[in-house]
Design goal:
The structure is a single chain. The protein is mainly α. The protein has a domain of 135 residues: Tetracycline Repressor, domain 2. Helices cover 72% and strands 2% of the residues. The chain is built from ten helices and two strands. It has a two-stranded antiparallel sheet. The longest helix has 25 residues.
């Protein structure tokens, strides 16, 4: 049966979206092509009409996951007045909600260690999207007239979230979130004029 270009594009988008969610909650290597396609009511054979390989899907899911998260954080920050945007971004990123909802959260925090072991094209997709995330942080700092080590701040935020998610101890998890917020906020200073 032949499907329209629109149907194929919609199916492709559904696969990438579902993969992005499942990779963040279950892990990239855990999610098989067969299981993914079955969860969407599709056949494994249909996968290759959309993707060259699982690696191709991973790169696309990475781009989508990051772009959704970056857009959500950027939109949230822009609702805050200048002078409060950076703190709002830090608080939102290291919140209980973000910790507890990895399926819609930061792709790097959920899959970064796995992606480090993947081929360069997939890692390039990650690097491009990390740069976009750093752009969101930079924008908040710029709007608040702050200076600081933006890449170090990004690492602090992502690392704190990873550790907060990894520990089964609720108090320790909360401590990682709080300490990460404190470290990120302490690393900026008002821009000198």
């Amino acid at each position: 049966m032949r499907y329209s270009k629109e149907h194929k594009a919609a199916t492709h988008a559904r696969i990438v979206h579902k993969a992005s969610q499942r990779f963040r909650t279950e892990g990239i290597d855990t999610v098989g092509v067969g299981s993914l396609m079955q969860s969407l009511g599709l056949t494994v054979g249909g996968f290759y009409a959309h993707f060259e390989s699982k690696e191709d899907l991973i790169a696309q899911a990475c781009r989508l996951g990051f772009s959704e998260t970056n857009a959500r954080f950027k939109a949230y920050v822009e609702t805050k007045p200048p002078g409060k945007q950076f703190a709002a971004l830090v608080d939102a990123y290291l919140s209980q909600q973000h910790r507890d909802e990895p399926d819609i959260g930061c792709f790097a925090a959920a899959t970064g260690a796995e992606l480090a072991r993947h081929p360069d094209p997939t890692r390039v997709a990650l690097a491009d999207q990390v740069d976009a995330w750093i752009g969101v942080i930079s924008l908040a700092m710029e709007n608040d007239k702050l200076d600081g080590p933006v890449r170090g701040i990004a690492g602090t935020l992502v690392g704190s979230l990873i550790l907060a998610r990894a520990t089964p101890d609720q108090a320790m998890s909360e401590a990682f979130l709080a300490s990460g917020r404190q470290a990120a906020l302490a690393s900026v200073r008002p821009r000198s004029t």
